[in-house]
Design a protein that fits this description.
Layout: E1 4-10, H1 17-28, E2 36-40, H2 47-61, E3 68-71, H3 81-85, E4 92-93, E5 98-101, E6 105-110, H4 119-125, E7 133-137, H5 151-160, E8 164-167, E9 180-183, E10 186-189, E11 201-208, E12 211-219
Parallel strand pairs: 1-2, 2-3, 3-4, 6-7, 7-8, 8-10
Antiparallel strand pairs: 1-11, 5-6, 9-10, 11-12
Length: 220
């Protein structure tokens, strides 16, 4: 029988101390009984605040029993990147990397910052031969209904066909994307944000093998 992997998903903390602490507490206290946590960009802080946040996270979840995999957002100051990577253990900056997750899954991630190589090609270059894929990007895939999102991310999903894709709100203006939709056989989640009110939005996802069994939203 395939192994079940439970994943905590959130994004777009946007400078909110309350939202960050709620997220870290959910991991350190194992509120949702997860195997791994993902944060899809949108920190909205300067380098000093990023350093303080990472130090808090490292202190609370240093044992690594629940890995926290995070990426900066497309609009985040590049100066925070060194802080997101400074701990070396947990949390882990997985931007531009293929990273092993529990249950034989492979996570591939991209911050969706502009570059010489398009996002879809950057992600395709990270594809691993081992295990089902989980995709994390700081921007959501393009949705023709709302006319928002990234065509490059949509292209990556169509090409890579991950079991699960997780997205931040980078580049979204106007109507917010559907927080939960299917793109082929990929469940695409864009949790959204209530950081302006100190709230935390997210999903708890159960993956079994290369399929999603359950994805339930939460709000704190």
């Amino acid at each position: 029988m395939a192994e079940l992997t439970r994943i905590l998903v959130a994004s777009d903390i946007r400078g909110s101390e309350d939202a960050w602490r709620k997220f870290i507490n959910a991991i350190s206290l194992d509120v949702f009984k997860v195997d791994v946590a993902l944060l899809a960009g949108g920190f909205g802080v300067d380098r000093n605040r990023a350093q303080a946040w990472v130090e808090l996270a490292a202190e609370r979840i240093a044992d690594g029993s629940i890995p926290l995999c995070l990426i900066p957002g497309a609009g985040d100051d590049p100066a925070i990147d060194i802080e997101l990577t400074a701990v070396g253990r947990n949390p882990v900056n997985v931007d531009g990397r293929a990273y092993p997750l529990p249950g034989g899954l492979t996570l591939i991630s991209d911050s969706c910052r502009p570059g010489l190589t398009p996002v879809a090609e950057r992600l395709a270059a990270l594809e691993s031969n081992g295990g089902p894929l989980v995709l994390m990007t700081a921007a959501p895939p393009y949705n023709s209904v709302t006319a928002s999102g990234s065509r490059e991310v949509a292209k990556a999903i169509e090409r890579l066909r991950p079991a699960l894709s997780v997205h931040g709100l980078a580049g979204v203006t106007g109507e917010l994307p559907d927080p939960k939709r299917w793109i082929g056989e990929t469940l695409a989640l864009t949790p959204g944000s209530e950081a302006d009110r100190g709230g935390l939005l997210g999903f708890v996802v159960d993956l079994v093998g290369d399929g999603v069994r359950l994805a339930r939203p939460f709000q704190t």
